[in-house]
Amino acid sequence: MNLQFEAHEKLIQDVIDSRLDLAVVPDLGYGANKVHHIRISDGVKLLFYASPIHPLANKELVEWGDLCDYPLLVGHEPFATKKIIPNKLIAEGVVTPLNMDMTADNVQCCKILVHNGKSISVALEEDIEHELREGKLKALPLPNDIWIEVDAVMHRGSVASPLIQDFLSAAKSAFAEPAARPMMSV
Hints:
- The protein is an alpha/beta fold.
- The protein has five helices and seven strands.
- The protein folds into two domains: 66 residues, no CATH class; 103 residues, D-Maltodextrin-Binding Protein, domain 2.
- Strands 1, 2, 3, 4, 5, 6 and 7 form a seven-stranded mixed sheet that branches.
- The protein is elongated, with a radius of gyration of 17 Å.
- It starts with 7 loop residues before the first helix and ends in a 10-residue tail after the last helix.
- The C terminus is likely disordered.
């Protein structure tokens, strides 16, 4: 079994091109007519976060429009974030665009840059839980949450081998537990 970590759009393209048998990715509808989607999780939670010294971190409630006043540092899945977040803002009635010009290679880099207090970022809850517990970062108290569904995708027409079926069962079980991590492929 070969595991590979990449941006989800590359993983899906690798499945379409038969370079991968299976990819676990957020459900954003990519390659829908070329791949078969298998639901792994009905949702993983995204959190906006900031340094405890950031002006938004000390508000009792951060409105969705407040996010537009600060640079948003986008992490290792910028394509997904740049699709999900604007759609959420539109659904919440916000028309001012976010400033999402900054992209970092990974969540760790985002956490370091956000810690300086000038920008905000967004990540899977599991990716920042340690820093939240230690008080190094603070989740922004928004009116409601953003959840992303997670799917395994296979090339349309492929048959899942027993190994893939076992992996899917294990992945579904793992995503049901709080310590699960998405965005991997087989």
